[in-house]
């Protein structure tokens, strides 16, 4: 986990203060209000469920591995990392950065649910617009295992487990269908188109499937500014359509309309809608709003002055301590915590965790986008700082190691080792085209000799939505005094890469394998 040591109440309070602005400093007791976004990190395509008194939140990860993270909360506001539903992107060599690349593919808009009859969590997703892969586990922490592969794409799917234990999947784009799965959840029994989106609406997708008071509901998004819902007496229809929201102003200045996501009912009978807000360059972040139902069974999002509220009354739920989403990792455990995801599948023979994270070079390349074993961490918004301490003593000539702002337009601060000596450098202008092919491997814009074997690298990222936001780099020889280095790096706020910027720690070779660095410490902090 992010904090592997036994954390005290004080640590929990720091987390609460950092993640929920309305939380009184020094308290995990029930709060009067909460602020949106409830979590300012990139967790898109939300599927949310409740199991007893715990809430679970599944999200998209595209090409990052492990995939499909699961977050946990007890109050819908304070969240912690719990696990990943897809331990490895086992869908072809391109997800290993071998013979291809999987950028903007992989895990997206998937389904997540829990089946009481066998106490099993189910995750399912369509990969490469081809097959739908199902994974199961008895706890969200895992181990998760491949349950089945269905030779069909359940596009943007949502799963319903009915009162009679039958499993249904709603899916599709514009034409919405429902499939019934076999009792063991390994195959399809029946599938039928149940709805065609009217042309005046355009596109509906992002299905979530619910049952309430004997009625069936398919919750659909109009990307990226609307939400609609279908209602029927039978899983296979006929369905009636109603608009839930359209062009509703969101709670983040400069951000988009809250949409997609899912509905959840608390153990006390209240309903909430957890949507995401487009907030690039940081990505898509969750916003929570209460929901009421009309007398004839339609959901209504509760707004504040005609918009999605920046603040709402705190849910009638008792907060419990959760592990902070920010803090320090010294990599003392036997495995990486679930806050970490690799860029594509890693070469597991080239890293170890224990007394720090030792990253051996795993790829010989001049292209960071093609280098294996680049480890990523989400950025905490609206701004945060990543600081990494590296032991450089095992680097070899041609090696490149550092801390990057990673996306389709990237920059990094780190060490180049050539001719038996180290230099600290800033490199920017690492770019991809619209097909996610590398168009530039970077330009060194600042450099200086570096004689030491230990360095602290720092990146401060402003990810408030909008153009012109910057990351700024600095480094230190003692971990205390930091020297600004290189020009500010302007972040790309285009949405088409889908995932937002991440902090990334890397070590790759340009000449030959054999070198290594040890990541002794990583800290994510907020102002």
TrEMBL record:
The keyword Repeat does not apply. It comes from Amycolatopsis magusensis. InterPro entries: ConA-like_dom_sf (IPR013320), GH43_C2 (IPR041542), Glyco_hydro_43 (IPR006710), Glyco_hydro_beta-prop_sf (IPR023296), Glycosyl_Hydrlase_43 (IPR051795). This is Beta-xylosidase. The lineage of its organism: Bacteria, Bacillati, Actinomycetota, Actinomycetes, Pseudonocardiales. Residues 329-523 form the Beta-xylosidase C-terminal Concanavalin A-like domain. Transmembrane segments: none annotated. It comes from the Bacteria. Keywords: Glycosidase, Hydrolase, Signal. SUPFAM superfamilies: Arabinanase/levansucrase/invertase, Concanavalin A-like lectins/glucanases. Residues 1-22 form the signal peptide. Belongs to the glycosyl hydrolase 43 family. Gene3D superfamilies: 2.60.120.200, Glycosyl hydrolase domain, family 43.
């Amino acid at each position: 986990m992010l904090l592997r040591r036994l954390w005290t109440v004080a640590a929990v309070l720091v987390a609460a203060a950092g993640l929920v602005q309305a939380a009184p400093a020094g308290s995990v007791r029930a709060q009067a209000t909460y602020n949106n976004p409830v979590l300012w990190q990139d967790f898109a395509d939300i599927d949310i469920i409740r199991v007893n008194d715990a809430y679970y939140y599944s999200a998209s990860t595209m090409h990052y591995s492990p995939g499909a993270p699961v977050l946990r909360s007890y109050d819908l506001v304070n969240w912690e990392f719990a696990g990943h539903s897809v331990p490895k992107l086992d869908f072809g060599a391109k997800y290993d950065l071998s013979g291809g690349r999987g950028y903007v593919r992989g895990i997206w808009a998937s389904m997540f649910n829990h089946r009481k009859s066998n106490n099993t969590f189910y995750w399912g997703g369509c990969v490469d617009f081809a097959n739908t892969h199902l994974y199961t586990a008895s706890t969200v922490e895992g181990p998760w295992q491949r349950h089945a592969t269905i030779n069909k794409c359940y596009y943007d799917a949502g799963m319903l487990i009915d009162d009679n234990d039958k499993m249904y999947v709603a899916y599709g784009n514009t034409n919405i269908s429902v499939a019934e799965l076999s009792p063991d959840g390994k195959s399809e029994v029946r599938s039928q188109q149940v709805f065609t989106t009217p042309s005046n609406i355009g596109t509906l997708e992002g299905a979530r499937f619910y049952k309430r008071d004997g009625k069936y509901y398919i919750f659909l998004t109009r990307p990226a500014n609307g939400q609609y819902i279908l209602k029927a007496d039978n899983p296979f229809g006929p369905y009636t359509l109603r608009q839930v929201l359209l062009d509703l102003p969101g709670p983040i200045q400069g951000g988009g309309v809250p949409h997609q996501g899912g509905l959840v009912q608390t153990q006390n009978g209240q309903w909430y809608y957890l949507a995401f807000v487009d907030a690039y360059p940081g990505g898509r972040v969750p916003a929570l709003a209460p929901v009421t139902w009309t007398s004839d069974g339609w959901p209504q999002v509760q707004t504040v002055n005609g918009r999605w509220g920046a603040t709402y009354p705190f849910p009638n739920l008792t907060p419990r301590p959760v592990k902070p989403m920010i803090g320090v990792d010294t990599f003392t455990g036997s495995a990486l915590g679930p806050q970490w995801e690799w860029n594509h599948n890693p070469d597991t023979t080239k890293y170890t965790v224990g007394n720090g994270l030792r990253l051996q070079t795993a790829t010989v390349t001049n292209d960071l986008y093609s280098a294996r074993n680049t480890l990523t961490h989400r950025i905490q918004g609206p701004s945060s700082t990543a600081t990494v301490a590296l032991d450089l003593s095992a680097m070899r000539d041609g090696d490149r190691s550092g801390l990057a702002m990673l996306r389709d337009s990237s920059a990094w601060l780190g060490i180049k080792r050539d001719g038996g000596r180290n230099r600290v450098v800033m490199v920017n202008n690492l770019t991809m085209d619209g097909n996610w092919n590398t168009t530039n491997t970077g330009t060194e814009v600042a450099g200086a000799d570096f004689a030491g074997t230990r360095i602290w690298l720092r990146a401060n990222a402003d990810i408030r939505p909008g153009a012109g936001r910057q990351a700024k780099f600095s480094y230190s020889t003692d971990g205390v005094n930091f020297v600004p280095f290189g020009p500010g790096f302007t972040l790309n706020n285009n949405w088409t890469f889908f995932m937002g910027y991440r902090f990334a720690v890397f070590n790759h070779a340009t000449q030959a394998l054999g070198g290594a660095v040890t990541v002794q410490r990583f800290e994510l902090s907020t102002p």
